[in-house]
């Protein structure tokens, strides 16, 4: 097995919640992943934590695999995919968690592929006035952003501190101040209309340094198709930033 294959190796793990396919080395797991929550002990939940129905021999208790709380079958009947915890099969979740997981499915089914396919941007480093046209894409293991042009950069996702998405439709001077989203915010960015994403400011820590490096990404305007592709990539990156913050806040 090569070094790369060893790094990307996965192992099948059985937990009380179900089968999970996880990286052989925990340090190499996806930065968007979530840890399994501890289950609320049976003795601490005599009633459903949603409808307050008392558990007995007929009304059994079930644990939501995403939040770990106790529910009756009626309140925890849905089995929904949960890729952020690497479950092989759909798992039982309460209604609230199932809705969240269903929304995240779009990211894993569609937007993750958009990020991996990449898009072209003009990239400006720090306060430099020079920009370089680069293809930006997410690595297959979801742990790095690769930037390829005359130069090559690899940015570890875990070291990203701030993501600011710039949008069009504002007067000059406003764009860099007001029209952004950070890991702490949830402004909705779409691929069309008045909130089309046109660029991104990203800050991250370089290896071996505590100082932040800033990169500004500006969508190319040479072809309309490239502009649409860049907007879709930025919209996907916006969603990825939100998931990244959630993972860190766990």
UniProtKB/TrEMBL annotation:
SMART domains in UniProt: FYVE (SM00064)
Sequence ranges assigned to domain FYVE-type in this UniProt record: 42-97
UniProt keyword annotations, A-Z: Metal-binding, Zinc, Zinc-finger
SUPFAM superfamilies cross-referenced by the UniProt entry: FYVE/PHD zinc finger (SSF57903)
Any GO molecular function: zinc ion binding
Signal peptide positions (record): none
Any Pfam family the entry gives: FYVE
The keyword Transmembrane appears for this protein: no
Entry protein name: Zinc finger FYVE domain-containing protein 21 isoform A
